[in-house]
Design goal:
The complex is a heterotetramer, with 1 copy of chain A, 1 copy of chain B and 2 copies of chain C.
Chain A (H helix, E strand, L loop, with lengths): L10 E12 L2 E12 L3 E6 L5 H8 L7 E6 L2 E2 L5 H6 L2 E4 L11 H5 L6 E2 L2 E2 L1 H15 L14 H13 L5 E5 L7 H16 L3 E5 L3 H7 L2 E6 L2 E7 L5 H9 L18 E10 L6 E6 L3 E6 L5 H9 L4 E8 L2 E3 L4 H6 L2 E4 L3 H5 L6 H6 L7 E2 L2 E2 L1 H15 L15 H15 L3 E5 L7 H16 L3 E5 L3 H7 L2 E6 L2 E7 L5 H9 L19
Parallel strand pairs in A: 3-10, 3-11, 6-9, 9-10, 15-22, 15-23, 18-21, 21-22
Antiparallel strand pairs in A: 1-2, 1-4, 4-5, 7-8, 11-12, 13-14, 13-16, 16-17, 19-20, 23-24
Chain B lengths: L1 H6 L2 E8 L3 H17 L3 E7 L5 H14 L3 E4 L8 H9 L3 E5 L5 H6 L7 E3 L2 H16 L4 E6 L5 H17 L2 E7 L4 H14 L5 E4 L2 H13 L7 E3 L5 H8 L5 E4 L2 H16 L7 E3 L3 E4 H4 L1
Parallel strand pairs in B: 1-2, 1-3, 3-4, 4-5, 5-11, 6-7, 6-8, 8-9
Antiparallel strand pairs in B: 10-12
Chain C lengths: L2 H28 L6 H26 L7 H16 L6 H30 L3 H20 L9 H8 L1 E2 L2 E2 H19 L1 H18 L4 H27 L10 H11 L11 H20 L4 H27 L26
Antiparallel strand pairs in C: 1-2
Helix pairs in contact in C: 1-11, 1-12, 2-7, 2-9, 2-10, 2-11, 3-4, 3-5, 3-9, 4-5, 4-9, 6-9, 7-8, 7-11, 8-9, 10-11, 11-12
The chains are: A alpha/beta, B alpha/beta, C mainly alpha.
The complex binds adenosine-5'-triphosphate (2 copies) and magnesium ion (2 copies).
């Protein structure tokens, strides 16, 4: 158990003038910050503000260049993740760190597998795992292999992992980016219980409403500096945004109903992803922003991947501008002017060890090459344009993507598909991990594209976002489309009830055979 | 007819690396003999490399399983093959050793002191070549020895023969190094050795493949014809160089005849002849005059 | 083990097993003596050494590493073992015991070198074990003065020739090694760590474990297995030689990969490795019995190695009944088996 | 190229270059004739073949693949080339031309097999090229009937012996190949795709490309380079033989890896490969000039291969001079250079 002795100082963690530099980037600039014992402390800030860097210092991944960190009043400078874990600090990273070919249960208890006589005690392992899964509301077999899970399931699994052992401090770096309301509520329940047990929680998220719901105090970082720490009850969204961005933002979601919807650009008929029971039909028009809502695992990602040719399909027809096209692999889709922004940026979207410009231009190398030779300057200037448009925070277009912050990496993924100038844009969780300011930019960009006659399908787990920017929302439930709501019919209740529709007779299908394999 | 075919005695021929031209010509000799003779079925087996003792032993085991009538074996390791030979003899198969003699001590210990060996004297052959070189260079001549695979029996014997000739002929062996029977390696080796020992006058290569590389090294250094080379095996590719005077001499062991000889010997034994010990086959020094 | 489980196991391993069965049927039909008891005994004898080495190699490959030094280390271990066993100052019993220890220890020490250098300097095992390949070979030639060592005690040699109901004792040793390896991979924490590291070393590190330790141990295990293989070699062939084992690394790696273990680590099984080694052995033996010419044999061997793996792929596809090859990481929907551990094919 | 870039380049390549320089200094001091012009010519001649093969290998390894068949394919290509060039019905000029084409084509065809089988069935290149290793060797032995072919036209042989100001023509060919390879990797779309696929094939696929096409081409390029190496071999040694090239794959891979290319793909450079091949050549030459015995030389070679890579690592660490090794995926802050391809060198 956590020791709550009287002698313990009130602040469990204290940053004193902490500075961290990366080449060309001052990630943290003399940050002073005290985290109270047992509080839920929220870190907010734009992409690249230094949030992840700050918590990574606590986890032994980086070492501060200057300044000190105190843990329970004593100097703390972990040199390894082991040291951090020993000191009672646990983290759910922004990026996943799972073992794809191992089972869910082994992943949860990987830190310390239960043993008996030197052997892994599998009976206990699965029993305990079952309990942990129930706690986070993940209805999958503990024996399923992680590679078969979807992104949201992986996110929940990461949380279950962090809860598997007692800790003094739990850090959650954007745990809700891919979760839908029910999971988020459950997570908040877990946080409340942890708090009751005296655990300190550090929470990072770009979904501002959440911050008030879960946090007691909020610290805003901007450009590596601490701007302010304020009590959640004193804060408001406009105030937070002002602190984060440094200026007022107008409306959160731009919507221009006057822009006209044109001819049908894409029609999908009876598309059935390989190995799934349900077929789906829908149409997308020029100038339209179509949303896809649904609970975690409702089959949206599966559908768009099958549509794009990333996974095989059982059956189904796809029409582009009215004529049927055959799409068997992503190359076909891209040739027919369809693009897909995948939800898992690390594994499927980015080439981490390569530069921003290489990542951006890969979707259309013909535009920056001549007779097979790359045109250096064309590549840089094209990239620079997009970097500016999307406000990607990077010292140069040559920076390796691996060195960007999570949100900026996501922007690179967006940039790469904008570079392709496709007619049909399918974006799966495009704003995952992107800050409010930049979201606004992206929404406006999408609007401009729609106005230019493109068709856009957005899969998102952020309901307010979909309701804010879309003309129409398709609601997915257990692999079927159970709702097709025009803008006039948008309401949170309607969408959610449609989303639950296919699950009312029992629970979602959950077993080891589930999943799309896009791990 | 098929029935008659079945009754024909089967001869298993276990050789070393058929990749080596010498063994290949040996196999061809055996096949030719088998075709001409027509009274037996020949099953030749070669290894992928000369150091593949393991596969050779497996081949022996397979022949024992098949209950062949006669096994002729050219061992890749003179000690390692004694045990399977013993096993074959126990199984009632006539075994004749050829090309490389099985180790006397190991044979004695296995109770096979008198096992018949049909083959040349590698040491003698190397000695002949070395002797020719010694005669050409005269006392005090400085030479390299380019060895075969370290550990291989014929490599050891050829080296011993060269050393004996060098000693008797008063040659000074500057260095003795292996090039693993390989042309390119011999070329690189000798090129580099020429740098550290520019005063060399003769080179003894343990086979002709290496001699080919040696000659190229001398060509490149502008020393061909000035530094004398002797080789071993008399492969076709070396003959032109012998004629041109770039190679002083090589040794012919008459491989094609050797295997046929071995098979013949085996059948003589099967007919009841009591043969034992070493039945030497000829080794011949080949110089330009032999090739005219 | 329940019937259902056995069935699953068969199905799961069927891919490469199928290739093996097809091969056996073909050879039995074509080569008259192939299916005889005596020939089966031969094959089992012939695959023992490769099997034991491949078990060690499986550990290393599961980690995403490779060990090119096994052939040379095998030679070195026989030389050390051979020098001890032929030491005339020792009684045969002691000599045998010390020799076995000596061989195993030699293998382990080479493994220590491989593992420690790889991990201390984070160098890919390919280059370190390539270094070791040369070092061990040079050392074997040097200390043996390039001579073959023989004349081991009869008691020792007899083990190599012994059979129990036609099954060679050395194959039983190899089988025991395979089963032990399977148990370790499936049931022990060490085994799970091996898989985990091969999956995502980074994640293992972030979980507070030190992958280096496990990796070094895996190399030591591999070295140790080579030591055991050296003893089997000496028992079987009754010699110790500094030039043996050339190219064995390729055979071992081929057995492991044919057996379904992924070269990039994290996925694979010991039974697969055993099947892989069997395929190689059957192929060698069968083609020889067919009386195929040497060069043709070499070509056919190369072709069949590839074909065997292709058959495995087709099975996987048919079994999954889907075209997941289009998907990034084909989800294997294998029913989970408790007794083989929860992870990948074991 | 601006001065700053050259400086970066030097620094970046310094690691393994440093090892090379240290080695050259040591040998110059210890072996009197090492630093002579004639000896430099020798070394350059000796590394030419390995360099050309290694260039091809670099493409394959950058993709995360491997090609074990290069040695056998080299032999096969010399046999094909040798049979054409010694064909008496052809005029020397035609014979040379056709022979060069024949060798190169043979290499390319073997590359097609390797690439297509790997990609069609998604089999790891290790196993496919292991198959090819046997197939090509068997074929070479079969069609040549295991005989060495010699007596090529003088015009052809002369090229192998020619030097320009002490620099062997065949080394100039090798150098041209290296520079061409570097240009392709750094400047062309194909090169960019090679790096990208080596880093994250799935992301490339989902970006609307077909990685298989590029991978097959890389294997063909590798095979083609082996064909070129075969021609150089024939020029240099004036023979074609079915048994040459055994073990060349290990030398080539070693050169590539010593040169800093990552075995798991995506990172590496052609200049590194050239330096790697040079280290191997200098080592071989220097140790011999020191008069070291065969066995000791083999051991020392093994050791130095490892040490050279360790030196490279130290340089990398010193250059970064930071605690990033603690970081999960050690972010490498090497300045990005467009002209050497997009991946950082590791
Ligand atoms: N929490 C869960 N419990 C059970 N099964 C789930 C869960 N999450 C996903 N699945 C399975 O995953 C499959 C759908 O996944 P997919 O990734 O397409 O959904 P999604 O709507 O994109 O949701 P998300 O990407 O948010 O996970 C379904 O077959 C479902 O059975
Ligand atoms: N390993 C690294 N090397 C170089 N620069 C880095 C590295 N890690 C982070 N940075 C830079 O440090 C800054 C802060 O990054 P950090 O990941 O802390 O941002 P963040 O607040 O977590 O942003 P996000 O909300 O997008 O996740 C960014 O500009 C980023 O590019
Ligand atoms: Mg972050
Ligand atoms: Mg999804």
């Amino acid at each position: 158990m956590v020791d709550l002795g009287n002698a313990a100082p009130p602040d469990i963690i204290e940053f004193q003038g902490t500075t961290k530099r990366f080449p060309g980037v001052l990630a943290l600039d003399r940050v002073d910050l005290a985290i109270h014992r047992g509080e839920v402390h929220v870190l907010a800030g734009q992409n690249g503000a230094g949030k992840s860097t700050l918590v990574k210092l606590l986890c032994g991944l980086y070492i501060a260049d200057e300044g000190a960190i105190l843990l329970e009043g004593k100097p703390y400078a972990p040199r390894s993740t082991v040291a951090a874990i020993r000191a009672g600090i646990r983290i759910v990273y922004q990026e996943f760190n799972l073992l794809p070919y191992l089972t869910v249960a082994e992943n949860i208890f990987f830190e310390r597998l239960p043993r008996r006589a030197g052997l892994v005690d599998f009976a206990r392992l699965f029993r305990d795992a079952e309990a942990m899964l129930a706690q986070v509301g993940l209805e999958i077999s503990p024996r399923a292999r992680v590679e078969t899970l979807g992104v949201a399931q992986m996110q929940l699994l990461e949380i279950a992992k962090a809860l598997s052992t007692q800790s003094k401090v739990l850090i959650l770096d954007e745990p809700t980016a891919t979760l839908t309301p029910p999971e988020i509520q459950r997570l908040f329940g877990i946080i409340a219980r942890l708090k009751a047990r005296g655990v300190t929680v550090l929470y990072i998220s770009h979904r501002l409403q959440e911050l008030f719901e879960v946090g007691e105090r909020i610290t805003v970082l901007r450009n590596g500096r601490k701007v302010e720490t304020l009590a959640a009850r004193d804060a408001s969204i406009p105030r937070l945004v002002r602190l984060m961005v440094g200026k007022e933002l107008g409306e959160e979601y731009p919507f221009h109903p006057e822009s006209g919807i044109g001819a049908e650009i894409l029609r999908v008929e009876e598309l059935q992803p390989r190995g799934k029971p349900h077929a789906v039909s829908f149409a997308l028009h020029r100038g339209e922003l179509l949303g896809a809502a649904g609970l975690v695992g409702s089959g949206r990602t599966e559908l768009v991947r099958a549509l794009f040719g990333a996974d095989a399909k059982e059956s189904g027809r796809i029409y582009r501008d009215g004529s049927e096209v055959s799409i068997r692999r992503p190359r076909d889709a891209v040739r027919h002017g369809i693009c897909l922004l995948t939800e898992d940026r690390k594994a499927q979207g980015l080439i981490l060890a390569m530069s921003c410009s290489a990542n951006v231009t890969i979707t259309d190398l013909r535009r920056v090459s001549h007779a097979g030779l790359l045109q250096d300057s064309a590549e840089r200037s094209a990239t620079r344009e997009l970097v500016d448009d999307l406000d990607i925070k990077t010292p140069s277009v040559d920076q390796l993507v691996a060195n960007l912050s999570g949100g900026n990496q996501q922007k690179v993924v967006v940039a790469k598909w904008l570079f392709r100038r496709s007619e049909v844009l399918i974006f799966d969780e495009p704003t995952r991990g992107i800050d409010v300011g930049a979201r606004f930019e992206i929404y406006q960009l999408l609007w401009r594209l729609a106005a230019a006659g493109k068709g856009i399908l957005i899969v998102s787990s952020d309901l307010p976002e979909l309701m804010g920017i879309c003309h129409r929302i398709l609601v997915f439930s257990n692999g079927k489309i159970t709702g097709d709501l025009p803008r006039s019919g948008f309401s949170q209740e309607r969408i959610l009830s449609a989303a639950y529709q296919e699950y009312v007779h029992g629970r979602p299908q959950a077993d080891s055979t589930a999943g799309t394999g896009h791990a | 007819s098929a029935r008659a075919e079945e009754k024909k005695p089967v001869v298993g021929l276990v050789m070393k690396s058929l990749a080596n031209e010498f063994f290949k010509s040996m196999e061809e000799g055996a096949r030719k003999f088998a075709a001409e003779d027509g009274t037996f079925t020949l099953v030749p087996v070669g290894m992928n490399s000369e150091t593949d003792i393991d596969t050779q032993i497996s081949a022996m085991e397979n022949f024992i399983t098949q209950k062949v009538d006669l096994i002729c074996v050219a061992p890749a390791d003179s000690v390692g093959l004694v045990a399977p030979v013993k096993k074959a003899i126990k199984a009632g198969i006539t075994v004749v050793n050829f090309d490389v003699k099985l180790d006397d001590k190991a044979l004695a210990k296995a109770g096979l002191k008198d096992l018949v060996f049909v083959g040349p004297d590698n040491r003698e052959g190397a000695y002949l070549a070395g002797n020719e070189l010694a005669k050409k260079l005269g006392k005090g001549g400085k030479v390299f020895i380019i060895e075969g695979n370290p550990g291989a029996d014929n490599a050891k014997m050829r080296k011993a023969g060269f050393e004996k000739a060098a000693k008797e002929g008063g040659l000074k062996v500057l260095v003795s190094r292996t090039a693993h029977w390989e042309t390119e390696e011999a070329n690189t080796l000798v090129t580099n050795l020429l740098t550290s020992h520019p005063d060399v006058q003769g080179i003894m290569a343990a086979n002709d493949s290496m001699a080919l590389g040696v000659v190229k090294a001398l060509d490149a250094a502008g020393k061909s014809g000035k530094v004398q080379v002797v080789g071993f095996d008399n492969i076709p590719a070396i003959q032109k160089l012998v004629k041109d005077g770039k190679v002083l001499a090589t040794i012919d062991q008459f491989g094609p005849e050797m295997a046929a000889n071995c098979i013949k010997t085996g059948f003589r034994m099967k007919k009841g002849e009591h043969l034992k010990g070493w039945l030497k086959t000829p080794v011949k020094l080949i110089t330009a005059t032999d090739l005219m | 083990m329940r019937v259902k489980q056995i069935l699953y196991l068969l199905l799961r391993e069927a891919g490469i097993g199928l290739a093996l069965i097809l091969m056996v049927i073909a050879f039995s039909a074509a080569a008259p003596r192939f299916a005889s008891m005596a020939n089966v005994t031969n094959i089992l004898t012939q695959i023992s050494i490769n099997t034991v080495i491949s078990v060690g190699m499986t550990f290393v490959i599961l980690l995403g590493g490779i060990d090119l030094s096994v052939g040379s280390v095998l030679a070195l271990a026989t030389i050390v073992g051979g020098m001890i066993i032929t030491n005339e100052n020792l009684s045969p019993g002691t000599a045998i015991l010390l020799s076995v220890l000596g061989s195993a220890l030699t293998g382990c020490l080479c493994g220590v070198f491989n593992g420690v250098v790889c991990e201390r300097w984070k160098i890919h095992s390919f280059i370190v074990t390539l270094g070791m390949l040369n070092i061990a070979r040079g050392a074997a030639l040097q200390i043996s003065n390039s001579r073959t060592i023989s004349e081991f005690p009869d008691a020792f040699n007899d083990v190599g020739a012994a059979t129990i109901f036609g099954v060679p004792v050395i194959f039983l040793i190899a089988l025991a090694v395979v089963l032990a390896g399977r148990f370790i991979l499936a049931r022990t924490v060490f085994g799970r760590m091996i898989y985990a590291i091969g999956n995502n070393e980074e994640a293992v590190r972030l979980s507070g474990h030190d992958p280096s330790v496990y990796k070094v141990v895996a190399f030591i295990v591999c070295g140790g297995m080579v030591g055991v293989a050296a003893i089997i070699y000496m028992m079987r062939l009754n010699i110790a030689s500094p030039i043996l084992g050339v190219g064995f690394e390729l055979n071992a790696i081929a057995a492991v990969v044919i057996g379904g273990t992924s070269m990039s680590g994290g996925k694979g099984s010991m039974i697969g490795t055993l099947l892989g080694a069997s395929i190689m052995g059957v192929l060698n033996n069968g083609l020889l019995l067919l009386g195929m010419g040497d060069f043709a044999r070499q070509m056919v061997t190369g072709l069949i190695i590839v074909v065997a793996v292709i058959i495995d792929k087709y099975r996987a596809q048919a079994f999954l009944r889907s075209s997941y090859e289009l998907a990034p990481a084909p989800p294997r929907e294998e029913p989970h088996l408790r007794d083989t551990g929860p992870g990948p094919r074991v």
